[in-house]
Write a structure and sequence with these properties.
Layout (H helix, E strand, L loop, with lengths): L1 E3 L5 E4 L2 E2 L5 H11 L6 E2 H9 L7 H16 L12 E4 L2 E4 L7 H17 L11 H15 L14 H28 L2 H14 L4 H13 L3 H19 L5 H12 L9 H10 L18 H15 L4 E7 L5 H14 L3 E6 L10 H10 L12 H18 L2 E6 L6 H12 L6 E8 L7 H12 L3 E4 L5 H12 L5 H11 L3 H14 L3 H4 L5 H12 L3 H13 L4 H8 L3 H13 L16 H10 L4 H5 L4 H5 L2
Parallel strand pairs: 7-10, 7-11, 8-9, 9-10
Antiparallel strand pairs: 1-2, 2-3, 4-6, 5-6
Bound molecules: adenosine-5'-diphosphate (ADP) and magnesium ion.
The site of adenosine-5'-diphosphate has 19 residues, from helix 13 and helix 20.
Family: Belongs to the AfsR/DnrI/RedD regulatory family.
Keywords: DNA-binding, Transcription, Transcription regulation
GO molecular function: DNA binding
């Protein structure tokens, strides 16, 4: 027999429902179930069931309801004589239910037991349980949550006792939902976790753990920008509702998401299972923290000087440029951490490649980070008013506390975003304000607006940092730090030759080496998928006629210009013109001795793989790579 109170009261005997009579009679059962094995005095019972609407002669009704309940329930117990379900005691009644005969108690026991399991899961790294064990725990939680049929103790009114118990059960249910999400995360079901967390954070906007898990789920689902958005929303909510800052854990999490720290990554369970099976400790790739930034000390010092200048009240600008993956965001992130330690408030806006991003989105993000109000009337007819308003908001805030504003990836900025930045650069009154921007350079197709801005910053004597690839030594050190094993100088040179020290590429190869255990020399012989994607994105920016020439040059292999011109069927001057965007984008090098040299062997190999062998095939259309991104 089981009494069920997680919804309108029900009794089931071997799954069969037991008839419980009219509403008040059922309510009396629910009221007794609120505190099983405890005497409930008649006046309390009346209070719980009738509240203020108590009829005149209520006690006889209670007695008759109880007696009919007894007739329904006692037969359900084999030893009914020695141990009846409903017992009369002086002044009241008692429902003699074992813990496993009341669904609320079973729910509670199950949820707390499973919570101990979930609590044992490490924040990062392989869980101590196998995939099967995790799935079994999740199934049990599904079963426990399935016991809910509606509002608990639905037959009772809003008395304090009933409400308190409902609240307690609701908390347990939230705990179960949260634990379920943690299990999904451990199982690698990041998307499902993110969806569930989006609804949980809406219901519980002040529960930081939920927001943290949501940011982790989004990051693991490859949505780093959304993860940062979510943390910005939390920061704003906490500020507005409670006037407090997010906990240090969440602040660390935000930095970790920005830096894409290793421990955020999901550890595939295959590994975990193997580790459990063989009893060997799992690899320690999941240690918190990230590898250090190599060979950026000088730039860091320059930026610190800019920060110090801003701290004296001088509005200061800086721009960090370099090709994709060179480490712009990393430099900015490290700066943001130092700035916060120096008492600056940091606002971060990133421009998005996403065509759907609304205009001024980076500024909105940045203001949200700072907890500043956005435009009160976004529908203002004159855009100038809106832009000026944004500038004013920032300047006012800087007057209160030193500010660091970061605008990352400006090569994707919308026009209004750049306009606001220019207005800010033209603002006459100095403020303790450091504005650091970043964009890709050499930019394949510089927009006029970005060019104008760069010139404008130049006039303001903005600090300009052009990031270069790491040296062969730096490349070797980064490989060793990421892969967690010694790297020979020959291996370091091989990776450097392949990547030109672009950290993103170096990291991709080092991860591949760590994953496969292969030597770096073998690993660089192939193109890891993320690298291929990066190269494809860069190539996709080039005009089609450049493509054709590049394809030929790659097929011929570092050919001299005359041969390329010959195959393409035009003069060397035309070939040079067409290669110019590729040179500006850093794909081919300055053409010396009339040779076409690729800056990266990866690009050359990729082009080769994609270009059909016969000239006729490529001549009549863009090479396939380009088509794939058209
Ligand atoms: N100097 C460096 N030393 C070590 N790792 C670096 C360095 N610069 C960047 N990285 C790493 O390389 C990857 C790409 O860097 P990122 O800052 O995202 O490049 P960008 O913003 O220029 O595209 C990140 O994983 C980052 O942590
Ligand atoms: Mg970046």
């Amino acid at each position: 027999m089981e009494v069920q109170v997680l919804g309108p009261v029900e009794v089931r005997d071997d799954e069969k429902p037991v008839a419980l009579g009219p509403p008040k009679q059922r309510a009396i059962l629910a009221a007794l179930a609120l505190s099983p094995r405890t005497v409930v005095p008649i006046d309390r019972l009346v209070d719980l069931v009738w509240g203020d609407a108590m009829p005149a002669a209520v006690v006889p009704s209670v007695q008759s309801y109880v007696s009919r309940l007894r007739q329904a329930l006692d037969p359900l117990r084999p030893d009914r004589v020695s141990r009846p379900v409903l017992v009369t005691r002086t002044g009241g009644y008692l429902l003699d239910l074992a813990d496993d005969e009341l669904d609320a108690r079973r729910f509670e026991a199950e949820v707390t037991a499973l919570h101990d399991v979930v609590r044992s899961l490490p924040e990062s790294g392989p869980p101590p349980l196998t995939a099967e064990e995790l799935a079994a725990a999740e199934a049990r939680l599904v079963g426990a949550l399935g016991r809910w049929r509606g509002m608990p103790y639905a037959d009772l009114g809003d008395s304090t006792t009933a409400s308190a118990e409902r609240g307690r059960l609701a908390d347990l249910r939230d705990l179960a939902l949260e634990d379920q999400v943690a299990l999904w995360l451990a199982l690698g079901d990041h998307r499902r976790a993110a969806l569930q967390l989006s609804s949980l954070t809406t219901t519980h906007p002040l529960r930081e753990r939920l927001w943290g898990l949501r940011a982790i789920a989004l990051t693991r689902d490859g949505r780093q920008a959304d993860a940062l958005d979510v943390l910005a929303v939390l920061r704003r909510t906490l500020r507005e509702e409670l006037g407090i800052e997010p906990s240090p854990e969440l602040q660390r999490l935000q930095a970790a998401v920005l830096r894409q720290e290793e421990w955020l990554k999901w550890t595939p369970l295959r590994q975990a299972v193997a580790a459990v099976a063989t009893g060997t400790p799992a690899p320690t790739t999941a240690a918190p923290g990230i590898w250090p930034a190599f060979e950026r000390e000088r730039h860091a010092a320059d930026l610190d000087a800019a920060l110090a200048l801003a701290a004296t009240g001088q509005t200061t600008f800086a721009a960090v440029t370099g090709e994709a993956g060179i480490g712009r965001t990393r430099v900015l992130t490290e700066l943001a951490v130092r700035a916060e330690a120096a008492g600056f408030r940091v606002g971060w806006g990133r421009c998005s490649q996403d065509e759907d991003a609304p205009p001024l989105h980076p500024w909105q993000r940045l203001l949200a980070d700072l907890g500043l109000p956005d435009d009160p009337e976004p529908t203002k007819a004159d855009p100038f008013d809106r832009w000026g308003h944004l500038v004013d908001v920032v300047l006012d805030a800087a007057a209160e506390q030193p500010l660091l504003l970061v605008l990352d990836d400006l090569h994707w900025a919308d026009g209004p975003t750049l306009r606001v930045l220019r207005l800010l650069a033209e603002a006459p009154d100095p403020r303790p304000l450091l504005v650091v921007t970043s964009w890709r350079s050499p930019h394949a197709r510089p927009t006029n607006a970005l060019g104008d801005l760069a010139a404008n910053l130049g006039r303001r004597h903005a600090l300009r940092i052009e990031l270069e690839g790491l040296s062969a030594d730096g490349t070797r050190a980064l490989c060793a730090a990421v892969a967690g094993r010694p790297v020979t100088s020959a291996e370091g040179r091989a990776v450097h030759a392949r990547t030109h020290g672009v950290p993103y590429l170096v990291v991709a190869y080092a991860r591949e080496a760590a994953r496969t255990g292969a030597s770096f020399t073998d690993v660089v012989a192939s193109v890891p998928t993320p690298v291929a994607e990066l190269v494809r994105r860069r190539l996709a920016l080039l005009p089609p006629e450049t493509w054709d020439v590049l394809a030929v040059a790659a097929a011929l292999g570092e050919a001299d210009l005359a041969r390329v011109a010959d195959v393409v069927g035009s003069g060397p001057d035309v070939v040079l013109d067409r290669l110019e965007p590729a040179r500006a984008a850093g794909i081919v090098q300055e053409m010396e001795f009339d040779r076409v040299t690729f800056t990266s062997a990866i690009v050359r190999d990729m082009l080769r793989q994609q270009v059909p062998a016969s000239r006729a095939a490529w001549r009549h259309g863009r090479p396939r790579l380009a088509v794939a991104h058209a």
